[in-house]
Design a protein that fits this description.
This protein is an alpha+beta fold. The chain has two domains: 125 residues, N-terminal domain of MutM-like DNA repair proteins; 125 residues, Helicase, Ruva Protein, domain 3 (Orthogonal Bundle), CATH 1.10.8. The chain is built from six helices and ten strands, in the order αβαβββββββααααββ. The strands form three sheets. The protein has a four-stranded antiparallel beta sheet with strand order 1-6-7-5, with helices on one face. The protein has a four-stranded antiparallel beta sheet with strand order 2-3-4-8, with helices on one face. It binds a DNA duplex (16 and 16 nucleotides) through loops.
Length: 287
DNA sequence: AGCTACTCCTGGTAGC
DNA sequence: TGCTACCAGGAGTAGC
């Protein structure tokens, strides 16, 4: 699924085709993609030029201007299955095209989204669409000391905490599982029980995993995520635990286990990621 | 604060 | 072969 590395890849590969282009027309065959009103969406974007394309968390932001002055933006979230492509209008759109923006070079920026969860919204400012977002995990704002401090302040299980975009922005199911494995931390460990050494290991694991995945242009393991060029990413070849239930751990050979944590499929090596020790206080048996 | 359950969707697949 | 039932999953929301 598109997480930070995939969205970063889309931003990088799509930018040359859209930055500098003016939006001439809009077609939105599935209204919810643009927030319900294609007319209002069209009014906000037609006649605007794209001046920049960047990523924050799992959001893509297209900066817009009109007559040389900044004039709002498009904020897109790919969710499960969204993809952007720039194509000739004559190219087959397929059954899942939810939005098409005609550009001034005659081509179309298309948003294709099988599961219809993705959104492309027009806004005055990106912050109007972003929820509460924690630090970017690859920025200086995400320092090991800060992570340790934030972990100390929380009692939640690590897995749902790391999936929480307000704690750290951009991680999803895949990269959380991979990072926890790399750090040797079980997903059910309570945040405030992570040692300083483990917090540093987790910080390094998150950054290392994300950087490696960006370098490989993300992960593609089903028909969903593709780069704007239509190519799959390659990081799935390096998964250590994600989607490897029943297969041997690459470190110790123990069978990878799949469990469910917070309604999310979760993959661990039971040996490399020992479960947290039972209750903090032994349960007193009634007599 | 933070948990669970539910919602939105549909292609793929397990089971019969 | 063909049918049904269920599953995945990011994020928002409701209820506790």
């Amino acid at each position: 699924m598109p997480e930070l590395p995939e969205v970063e890849t889309v931003a990088r590969l799509l930018a040359p085709d859209v930055v500098g282009r003016e939006i001439r027309a809009v077609r939105a065959p599935w209204k919810p993609t643009v927030g319900g009103s294609p007319a209002a969406f069209g009014k906000a974007v037609v006649g605007r030029r794209v001046t920049g394309l960047w990523r924050r968390a799992k959001y893509l932001v297209f900066d817009l201007e009109r007559a040389g002055a900044a004039d709002g933006c498009l904020v897109a979230h790919l969710r499960m299955s969204g993809r952007f492509h720039v194509e000739e209008p004559s190219a087959d759109c397929g059954p899942w095209c939810r939005l098409a923006l005609t550009l001034d070079d005659g081509r179309e920026l298309r948003f294709v989204d099988v599961r219809k969860f993705g959104r492309v919204l027009a806004a005055r400012r990106p912050e109007d669409v972003f929820g509460v977002l924690g630090p970017e995990p690859l920025s200086d704002a995400f320092a090991p000391e800060l992570l340790l401090e934030e972990l100390r302040a929380k009692r939640r299980h690590l897995k749902p905490l790391l999936l929480d975009q307000s704690f750290v922005a951009g991680l999803g199911n895949i990269y959380v599982d991979e990072s926890l494995f790399q750090a040797g931390l079980h997903p059910l460990v309570h945040a405030n029980r992570v040692s300083a050494a483990k917090a540093h290991a987790l910080h390094a694991a998150i950054q290392g995993t994300l950087r490696a995945a960006i370098e490989r242009e993300g992960s593609s393991f089903d028909t969903f995520y593709r780069t704007p060029n239509g190519q799959p990413g390659a990081y799935q070849e390096q998964f250590l635990v994600y989607g490897r239930g029943g297969e041997p751990c690459r470190r110790c050979g123990t069978k990878i286990r799949r469990l469910v944590v917070g309604q999310r499929g979760t993959h661990i090596c039971p040996r490399c990621q020992p479960p947290p020790r039972g209750p903090a206080r032994p349960v007193l048996r009634a007599r």
